[in-house]
Amino acid sequence: MTPGDLRAADFGAERGTWAVIAAAGRSSRAACEDGKPKQYRRLGGRPVISRTLAVFARHPAISGILVVIHPDDEELFADAVRQVDSPIPIRHVHGGASRQISCRRGLEALSAFAATPPRAVLIHDAARPFVSDTILDNVVTALEDGAAAALPVVAVSDTLKRGNASGTVVETVARDGLFAAQTPQGFDFTRILAAHRAAVAEEKDHFTDDCALAEWAGIAVTMVGGATGNIKLTTSEDLAMAERRVSAPCPDIRSGNGYDVHRLVAGDHVTLCGVNIPHNRRLDGHSDADVALHALTDALLATCGAGDIGTHFPPSDPQWKGAASFVFLQKAGEIVARNGGTILNVDVSLIAEAPKIGPHRDAMRSRLADILGISVDRCSVKATTNEKMGFIGREEGIAAIATANVSYGVLT
Ligand SMILES: Nc1ccn([C@@H]2O[C@H](COP(=O)(O)OP(=O)(O)OP(=O)(O)O)[C@@H](O)[C@H]2O)c(=O)n1
Ligand SMILES: C[C@](O)(CO)[C@H](O)COP(=O)(O)O
């Protein structure tokens, strides 16, 4: 057997867990124009196998990766490995004519070239790039808990039929207790190697996965959680679906928050959310001191990193003295729009002991909708007292907290 680039120094003194990645297949069921086997086709610009390897390379339980490749794929493999940032060794050996042979060659290579053979091995299809950390965790945990073999599965959810060669249903197969087997399949290294060797000795070469071989050899297989997303790319349709999956647009929705507080002094009304409310005090400030609109202005500016209200309307600038604060909010809305944003909703919470906000809430929501040019159902105004505590409780001031959600299209 060829050693590939595996070397004794790849194995530490401790018996760790290695991954064997089966990648020597020819993809006969996935028609392909560029002649590349499916594991080297690009998904979102990156080879399938690079994505698969990256998941194992960054998992803390894995100490090394041995990839079983076809002799014709040396260049494709070297290019794919260059695209994986791996803190652990990624080595390769050559596989054989069936998956069973390829996996056995991987195990034999680990046995022959490791000074200290691994304690456990996870055998995985290169053609399952959507394997997750969680599935690896499930398999590794089962092995640590004493399982000799661990198999990720998903319960079968379709009704199953057995059909004949002429396309007629022969029977409906009860799906109770049926599961679809996935990879990585985890094993006690010594036991799965012995099982593979026994299969050779007894000329058993029909196993489509290593757990089937383990079952045949009398090894108990523990089922753990797999995931429907962990599909094996088998056909061209699978590859097309996978491409759509990795290139699905991610909505660029951002939220911003804002806070403001102003002192109450002697007066006859307060202005909140642009609505004048009769009161025996007024809010003191450089402008009309509308805390609600100031907080909301900050929240909107935050969604595009455009600073805060003081950046655009400095209190030192005399033109804003006594200004109606709707101007600030309108301007913030324009800045958001210039940055490509569409306001989804805004939410203001007022914290005031008095005056009562409830009777004015609808007028405030309408005013916000007018200023921002959005519908009223996207504008929320709420209020609470401070239970007579602190400066708000003593009616020395009013505070406001605001949130804005803005869509900036999709992430590219
Ligand atoms: N002689 C083989 C056959 C398959 N595999 C690997 O086993 C995994 C699952 O096999 P499958 O989906 O059947 O891949 P192919 O054999 O390439 O596909 P096909 O059967 O359509 O030719 C794949 O990652 C494949 O590369 C392997 O290492 N050696
Ligand atoms: C190992 C496997 O992925 C388990 O589902 C599957 O059996 C391999 O695919 P194949 O099409 O049987 O080669």
From TrEMBL:
Xref: CDD domains: CDP-ME_synthetase, MECDP_synthase
Annotated site residue numbers, Positions MEP for the nucleophilic attack: 175, 232
Molecular-function annotations in GO: 2-C-methyl-D-erythritol 2,4-cyclodiphosphate synthase activity; 2-C-methyl-D-erythritol 4-phosphate cytidylyltransferase activity
Binding residue positions for a divalent metal cation: 260, 262, 294
E.C. designation(s): 2.7.7.60, 4.6.1.12
Cofactor(s) needed: a divalent metal cation
Catalytic activity: 2-C-methyl-D-erythritol 4-phosphate + CTP + H(+) = 4-CDP-2-C-methyl-D-erythritol + diphosphate; 4-CDP-2-C-methyl-D-erythritol 2-phosphate = 2-C-methyl-D-erythritol 2,4-cyclic diphosphate + CMP
Site (Transition state stabilizer): 29, 38, 286, 385
Residues given in the record as 4-CDP-2-C-methyl-D-erythritol 2-phosphate binding sites: 260-262, 286-287, 308-310, 384-387, 391, 394
InterPro entries for this protein: IspD, IspD/F, IspD/TarI, ISPD_synthase_CS, MECDP_synthase, MECDP_synthase_CS
Domain 2-C-methyl-D-erythritol 2,4-cyclodiphosphate synthase: 253-406
Pathway(s) annotated for this protein in UniProt: Isoprenoid biosynthesis; isopentenyl diphosphate biosynthesis via DXP pathway; isopentenyl diphosphate from 1-deoxy-D-xylulose 5-phosphate: step 4/6; Isoprenoid biosynthesis; isopentenyl diphosphate biosynthesis via DXP pathway; isopentenyl diphosphate from 1-deoxy-D-xylulose 5-phosphate: step 2/6
Segments of this protein annotated with the region 2-C-methyl-D-erythritol 4-phosphate cytidylyltransferase: 1-253
Keywords tagged on the record: Isoprene biosynthesis, Lyase, Metal-binding, Multifunctional enzyme, Nucleotidyltransferase, Transferase
Region of interest (2-C-methyl-D-erythritol 2,4-cyclodiphosphate synthase), residue spans: 254-412
Function: Bifunctional enzyme that catalyzes the formation of 4-diphosphocytidyl-2-C-methyl-D-erythritol from CTP and 2-C-methyl-D-erythritol 4-phosphate (MEP) (IspD), and catalyzes the conversion of 4-diphosphocytidyl-2-C-methyl-D-erythritol 2-phosphate (CDP-ME2P) to 2-C-methyl-D-erythritol 2,4-cyclodiphosphate (ME-CPP) with a corresponding release of cytidine 5-monophosphate (CMP) (IspF).
Family indicated by similarity: In the N-terminal section; belongs to the IspD/TarI cytidylyltransferase family. IspD subfamily. Belongs to the IspF family.
Name this protein carries in UniProt: Bifunctional enzyme IspD/IspF
Lineage: Bacteria, Pseudomonadati, Pseudomonadota, Alphaproteobacteria, Hyphomicrobiales
